[in-house]
Specification:
Elements (H helix, E strand, L loop, with lengths): L13 E5 L4 H12 L3 E6 L2 H13 L3 E6 L5 H15 L4 E4 L4 H7 L8 H29 L2 E6 L12 H21 L4 E8 L8 H5 L4 H8 L8 H12 L10 E4 L10 H13 L5
Parallel strand pairs: 1-2, 1-4, 2-3, 4-5, 5-6, 6-7
Helix pairs in contact: 1-9, 3-5, 5-6
Length: about 280
């Protein structure tokens, strides 16, 4: 996978990236492969995983697709076993897959919360991440070290008027990250989490690109002059997977354009406050 910027930072390593058929996961899989990593493209969408693995191979990388489901413990166990059978071991696990479709379509505020959605999101997002980690740790121990990278969310850092189940499931991942880091740090198995903010993927680009639309609204609250891209998350995941991050564990790192650093009221109230201070207020 020729690339002028590639340095072979993951040469000889094996990584599982879940949810890698599209979006952030697909970009991360391509990024890892460029750096010499053998990648398992894991996704519930088997055809999509096959296509993404083929794309990586066509560009000179090493990749294999494995279909699996976050909802099924045996499917998760089989994913780890299949990886080891193909490549002989496991060095990096990127728990990126998430049942976001349920959150977008049916997750709500607490009073109107659908218990089936709550159970499904906790089962897939939190339990699925836990099980993949549980089964991966012994394989990393055999290699002498490893890096586990969980995908959290900015929704885990503060409350909101909706997406309750999703936010809580991701907050659980933050806690899980720290527990795994504590329990396995002395084995040189690190565990960190990435908490993305709004990341515009090819599937959502048209929604956020429209002038005056939700993209403009979100951009007003960002400290950066643009919204997030999949490569922003992929580049951090690459760093956390590499030896350059061997002294970093138990951390939840935001990739959100600084939106989490802004007081919630500030962007909407700053003009009012300035007018009040200057005496220009007329009401």
């Amino acid at each position: 996978m020729a690339n002028a910027d590639a340095t072979g930072r993951l040469a000889g390593r094996v990584a599982i990236i879940t949810g890698a058929a599209s979006g952030i996961g697909a970009t991360t899989a391509e990024t890892f492969a460029r750096e010499g990593c053998s990648v398992i493209v894991a996704d519930i969408n088997g055809d999509g995983a096959d296509a993404q693995a083929e794309k990586i191979r066509a560009e000179g990388g090493e990749a294999c697709a494995v279909q699996f489901s976050l909802d099924e413990p045996e499917s998760i166990r089989a994913l780890i076993a299949r990886t080891v059978s193909i490549y002989g071991g496991l060095d990096v696990l990127h728990n990126n897959a998430s049942a976001t479709h349920l959150s977008v379509s049916r997750d709500s505020d607490l009073e109107h919360l659908d218990l089936d959605v709550w159970d499904a999101l906790i089962r897939a997002n939190l339990r699925g991440t836990m099980l993949a980690t549980k089964y991966a740790v012994p394989e990393m121990r055999r290699r002498g070290k490893g890096s586990i990278i969980n995908t959290s969310s900015g929704a885990s850092m503060a409350g909101g008027s909706s997406f309750t189940s999703y936010g809580v499931s991701k907050a659980g991942i933050n806690a899980l990250t720290m527990y795994v880091a504590v329990q396995h740090g002395k084995e040189s198995i690190r565990c960190n989490a990435i908490a993305p903010g709004l990341i515009v993927t090819p599937n959502t680009e048209s929604t956020y690109a429209a002038a005056g639309g939700p993209g403009d609204l979100m951009l007003r609250h960002h400290l950066t002059p643009r919204l997030g891209r999949p490569e922003d998350v992929a580049n951090l995941a690459l760093f956390l997977a590499s030896d350059e991050a061997e002294f970093i564990t138990g951390q939840v790192i935001c990739v959100d354009g600084g939106i989490g650093a802004v007081q919630a009221f500030n962007a909407d109230m700053v003009d009012f406050m300035r007018a009040l201070a200057s005496g220009d207020r007329t009401d």
